[in-house]
Every structure is written in structure tokens, then in C-alpha cells.
Amino acid sequence: MKVWLNGKLVEEENATVSVYDHGLLYGDGVFEGIRAYNGKVFLVREHVRRLFESAHAIRMKVPYTQAQVAEYIADTLRANKLKDAYIRVVCTRGYGFMGLDPDRCTHPTFFIITTSITLYPDEWYDHGMPIVTASTIRNHPDAMSPRIKSLNYLNNILAKIEAKDAGVIEAVMLNHVGNVAECTGDNIFIVAGGELITPPIASGILVGCTRNFVMGLARKARIPVREIDITRHDLYTADECFLTGTAAEVIPVCSVDKRLIGDGKPGPITKKLMAGFARAIGRSVRKA
Ligand code: PMP
Fold first, then answer.
1. What is the best residue among 155, 246, 249 to mutate for testing ligand 1's pocket, by most ligand atoms within 8 Å of CB?
2. Res 266: pLDDT
3. Domain total in the chain
4. What is the largest CA-CA distance in the chain?
5. Minimum-distance ligand 1 atom for the alpha carbon of 212
6. How far is the CA of 43 from the centre of ligand 1 (A)?
7. 220 and 190 in one domain?
8. Domain shared by 58 and 147, yes or no
9. 3-state class of 11 per DSSP?
10. pLDDT digits (tens, 9 = 90+) for 195-251
11. How many H helices and E strands in the chain?
12. What is the Cβ-side half-sphere exposure of residue 162, based on CA atoms within 13 angstroms?
């Protein structure tokens, strides 16, 4: 597989960065995860824009334009003859000897990896997946805004470890005031009283591209959408629950902390949105 690295397509075994790269030393950098379906990069403009916004927020300049980044993503897919893929775009502060000072790094490191993706097991798309709440709270937005998709994912990894310890693979993270924020790598939605509800941006979440897209699908289907605070109790007593993410797409949740959601099966609004999403990416609809 070829990797796009600092302006060149190189074989993956030659795609190496320095041990003095501040992305590695300090997590000083930003990234994106993007999907291509049948040769088309899904929501490419939204993802590339978010990459640039993340970089801007940490005072880092991506050394290309947004249009160039979109073009380099397409070049990498073409070089690897991939039509369906997971794409990882990474921009680090770059090489600079020890010390936090970002001014030690004169040039960012930029690379694009394309790979195939392993989704959650099919069975969970049909029957829903169990999740738990983690005791590790999501980063306080005033400390490290979850809106920045930074190379430091330790906050999420600690919650992921809790999920695995509990025998599941995804965990809900609460925010600093105890409301539901998001999962370790996915946004969260509930359905209650016929409305689609998701935590607002101000609750301290990554503003997911899939989240935004699914809210658009819901509005088109005339499902009322509200961005309001959700408590753990709201989650336990919801009629339906699902997660969204680039890798996960739209995945139903059957239980939270062993409380069944609704009747423990994917609900009608979840199924409708899953079908709408499948149509949008040109895939035949899952049975569910
Ligand atoms: N929240 C977090 C913490 C994430 O890492 C991700 C992406 N994996 C998401 C939400 C979903 O965002 P998107 O739909 O843009 O992939």
C-alpha cells in the first residue's frame, strides 16, 4: 500500500517519520478519518474543513489548501486502486528537537494512509450493540476542546479500556457536569417521544460529520431533531439509541449499563436512518 507523505507517494515500509516529530513526542497534531464508498470520498469537504479548523485552533498551519488535500486523498486512493476505503489524514507539528515549544518545528509532517476498514460485527447492526458509561469524563472543553480532533486520544482510550473491562467495546462519556457527551469514537443519539435528540456542541463533543449528516437525513424525513442536554437517565429510558461515526456509520445500541433500550432491538427511527444512510452511500440496505 502506498502512503502519501510530505508531497510524495511512498511504499508503506518507507513511510517513516522522525522520533523527534512533535506529533509523536507530544501528540501535537491533528487528524481526520474519512471513508470512500465506491470511488467517491464521502463528506470530503466537511472532513477537510474540520482538519483545517482543528489545525487553526492549535495554531498550526496545514502547508496545503483544502482543495489540495482533497486532491491528494484522491491521488492516494487511485495509487492504491481502492474504491472502498478508510482514509486517515494526519498533520503533525513536525520535526523539532525536545521541548514543547512549537516554534522548534519549522515544517509540519503531513501524511495520508488509505486502508480497508473493519466495522463492528454485522450482528450488531442487525440487533444493536451493548455499551456502558465510563467513569472517565470527556475532556473539559476549556482544557482541551473535544472539537479539536487532535493526535492526543488518551481521554478516549482510557474510556475505551473501561468499556473493554466491562466486556463491551464502546463507552458513553459524560461531560464535566455529568451530562452525556459522546462515545469514545462515535457521537450518540436517542429517540424519545418521536424526537431525535443528541447532545449539543456546547456539551463538549467532536462535531461529527456523520452526526451532522444523519441530522440532515432526519430533517428531510420530517423527524423532529433537537440538540439538548441528555442525562444518563434519559439514555436509560430512551425509546431508541444509536451511535454515528465515520467508521461505525449508524449503529443501533441495544443496552446501556445493562438497561435495555426500548425493547432491546433497533427501533423504527433508527432503522429508517440506517436505511437512509445506506442509500446515501449507495449500499443496499441492511436487513435489520
Ligand atoms: N466523537 C469522537 C470522539 C470521534 O473520534 C469520532 C470519529 N471517530 C466521532 C465522534 C464521530 O465523528 P465523525 O462522524 O466525523 O467520524
1. 246
2. 97
3. 2
4. 56
5. 14
6. 13
7. yes
8. no
9. strand
10. 999 999 999 999 999 999 999 999 999 999 999 999 999 999 999 999 999 999 999
11. 8, 15
12. 19
pLDDT at 285: 61
Single out the residue of 124, 169, 119 nearest to residue 281, CA to CA: 119
Encode pLDDT of 249-283 as tens digits: 999 999 999 999 999 999 999 999 999 999 999 98
Model-level pTM greater than 0.90? Answer: yes
Q: Are residues 195 and 238 in the same domain?
A: yes
Ligand 1: residue whose CA is nearest its atom 11: 245
Q: Are residues 226 and 203 in the same domain?
A: yes
Give the domain range for residue 217: 122-281
Contact in structure between 248 and 185 (CB atoms under 8 Å): yes
**What is the position in ligand 1's atom list of the atom closest to the CA of 146?**
3
Most informative mutation of 206, 211, 249 for ligand 1 (most atoms within 8 A of CB): 206
Q: Which of 8, 81, 83, 149 is catalytic?
A: 149
Pocket perturbation via mutation, ligand 1, pick of 187, 198, 277 by most ligand atoms within 8 A of CB: 187
CA distance 130 to 252: 9
Ligand 1 centroid to residue 97 C-alpha, Å: 31
Please state, in angstroms and rounded to a whole number, the distance separating the CA atoms of residues 239 and 143.
Answer: 34
Instruction: Kindly report, residue by residue over 2-20, the tens digit of the pLDDT.
Output: 999 999 999 999 999 999 9
Task: Give the CATH number, domain containing residue 73.
Answer: 3.30.470.10
Grid cell 522520533 in the structure block, residue: 19
Spatial distance between the Cα atoms of 123 and 90, rounded to a whole number of angstroms? 32
Q: Is the CB of 204 under 6 A from ligand 1?
A: no
81 is an active site residue = no
List own/partner pairs for 39-45 with CB under 8 A and 24 or more apart: 39/77, 39/83, 40/282, 41/70, 41/73, 41/74, 41/77, 41/87, 42/281, 43/209, 43/210, 43/213, 44/70, 44/73, 45/70
